[in-house]
Structure formats: C-alpha cells, structure tokens
Design goal:
The chain is of the alpha/beta class and 358 residues long. It has 12 helices and 13 strands.
C-alpha cells in the first residue's frame, strides 16, 4: 500500500513523466544530492512513497489499460526514461465537458461514452485516493471546476496543475477549508522553465537598479499541449498566469508579451523558449538581453509535482485545510500570493520543518 495515494486527471505527457519519475527515483539515497530532485526526503516522505491509485481519461486507447501502459500510448510523446511495472490501476473513462477542444477530438481519439460525476466520485472513494492531481488541457474551464467538485465530494485534496484559477480563488479555497481539505495551485511551474527563468531575470534587473522598458517570452513546442493552444480563446487564463508570474516582481508597469506562440510538430515533447528584455542601466545607457532555453517539457514539471504531492500529504497529516500558501507560491505560476522565489523556497523549508502552518 502506498503511503501517499494519488489519482490523476489526464494521462498525457505530464502524467507520464510523473509516473515514470516515481519509479526512476524510488531508490534515491537521502544522504546525497540527486540530479533532478529538489527533495529526496520531503518531511519524512521519500519519492517512492507516492503511489497512483486511479486515473481518468477521454482517449479510447488509454481507457481500460493499466496506467503503466497508458502513459506510453499515443499521442503521448514524453521520452521513456524508466521501466514502469504493472501498477494494477485501470484507467477510468472521464466526462468530456470542455476538456477537449473541437480541433483536438481526433487527436485525443475521444471515446463515445458518457461518464458522469457519480462515476468519478465512486472511483476516487473506492480507490481511497487522498490527492487528486489535475492535468487537464489548457482552456478546460468547466472541466477543472468539475474535478474540484469531485475532490470535495470524495474527500480528496486537490492539486491544480493547469491555468484555471481555483486554488487562487478565495471562494473555492473556502470550500476546501470548510471540508477540511488542502488545495494547491494554480498552473505548475517547471523545474527550470520559461517562467522561472524569466521571473529571475526580471528580479535580478530590479534588484540591480536596471529599469526594464519592455520584455517578451515566446514558446514553441510540438506536443498536444501546444496543438491545443493554437486556439486563442483557450489561452486567456494561460496568458494571465504566465504574465503575472513575471510582472508581479516588477514594481512598475511593464509592457510585456508572454505566451505560447506556435505549434511545431517535429519538436515533439521539446519546448523552446525565447526571452528578450530591453532596459536601461547607469546613465540611462541601453541594455538588451536575449536567452534561448530548450527543454523536454513534461519531465521539467514532474520533479516539482512530486514535491507538491508530498507537501499536500503533510498538510493532510497535520489537518491543514484550504490554500497551501508556501508550496503554491514556490511551485505555481498563479498562486494565491506572489512572492520572490527565494522567499517562497524558504517558506517551503519552514513548512517542512513545521515552523509554518501552511
């Protein structure tokens, strides 16, 4: 029996990297610095303590499969970096709602069924899931809130990895607090991705007395996440989330353009980010900075989610309900409170030690 029982909404590339990562690091030594992990031991929980007990999908080729098989089923293209044994977790059908854009129905090979809320809640209860992790596609406004309600009904904590504002919304936070359940979110930051890099460059300029006049961040990718985001109306909250993550650290109005810019199929799960910044230093002398970052997208977030899951489990153990401010500020683009990353990291360490209540 896993010490931390996790259910997944969406068995795409992000879920693939997370499931693989738990097995890849299951023998990581706690007294060593391990590449790719921020914490081997997080408040008494090792990576191997994370276990998956349920998963929900709309892809007919994933539904009914063992989770260990479904994570490698097309259109997933996350690199295989771990052999995952059979997990005994059958992927369950999910309600479609607005989680599938019209241009994605064929790509996702959407099934013809009609699962309802009672089915999801039943699976969560029967599997004794403690934490529900939301990996829905960008633009899933109604579906994200549907699963938050399912978590409340089933008595699960909720981790919102996508850019719908739930954990950062006071009304939703109150619902979880009233149920005695923790919630973390919104919109996952990668370990070293475009947002965390852009934030720290902006913060460095502010700290060193450089005035930023304008900046942009353009992102290219070739997986289903980027294909989904080719429809602009699904991007409203994504652009807000990514933009606020950077501009919140700059104490003046900053002309900014941030967000997904194109889908390039042959890039696969690779993400390419271009950052550009123009500013002024001493004597109003001009300064420009250009950065290019290339990463495998899905594994870049999985190491962060492993820490979030363990932080939420600590909150469950300590009977902490509502917004988890420390891990949300550290691990998400649109948390309830935006603080510099160094402050957020210190808050997480204090939370682990029990010096901070949330």
């Amino acid at each position: 029996m896993p010490r931390i029982r996790v259910a997944l909404v969406g068995v795409g590339n992000s879920a693939s990297a997370l499931v693989q990562g738990v097995h890849y690091y299951r023998d990581a030594k706690e007294d060593e610095s391990v590449p790719g992990l921020m914490h081997v031991n997080f408040g008494g929980y090792h990576v191997r303590d994370v276990g998956f007990v349920a998963a929900f999908e709309v892809n007919r080729n994933k539904i009914g499969k063992d989770l260990s098989e479904a994570i490698f089923t097309k259109p997933n293209n996350c690199a295989k970096f771990a052999d995952v044994p059979r997990l005994g977790v059958k992927v369950s059908p999910a309600p479609i709602l607005d989680g599938v854009a019209s241009h994605m129905r064929k790509v996702f090979d959407v099934y013809d069924g009609s699962a309802v809320k009672a089915d999801v809640v039943r699976v969560l209860k029967e599997s004794k899931a403690e934490i529900l992790v939301n990996y829905l596609p960008v633009g899933s406004h109604d579906a994200a809130r549907f699963y938050a309600e399912c978590a409340l009904d089933a008595g699960c904590a909720f981790v919102n990895c996508m850019p719908e504002f739930i954990a950062s919304d006071a009304a939703w936070a109150r619902k979880f607090e009233q149920k005695g359940l923790p919630i973390a979110g919104d919109d996952i930051k990668s370990q070293l991705g475009a947002t965390i890099l852009h934030r720290n460059i902006a913060r460095l300029c502010v700290d060193r007395g450089i005035i930023i006049d304008e900046t942009y961040q353009l992102n290219l990718g070739g997986d289903t996440d980027f294909l989904n985001m080719t429809v602009e109306e699904r991007l409203k909250t994504k652009r807000i989330s990514k933009t606020e993550a950077v501009t919140s650290l700059v104490p003046y109005d900053l002309p900014t353009r941030i967000g997904p810019s194109d889908y390039v199929p042959f890039l696969g799960n690779k993400k390419i980010c271009y950052l550009w910044l123009k500013g002024r230093k001493f004597g109003d002398r001009p300064l420009t900075l250009s950065v290019k970052l290339e990463v495998e997208d899905s594994p870049n977030s999985a190491g962060v989610v492993i820490d979030i899951i363990r932080a939420v489990k600590l909150a469950l153990d300590r009977k902490i309900a509502g917004q988890l401010l420390s891990i949300s500020s550290y691990a998400f683009k649109h948390p309830p409170i935006q603080v510099p990353d160094s402050v957020a990291k210190q808050s997480v360490e204090e939370f682990i030690q029990g010096k901070r209540c949330r």
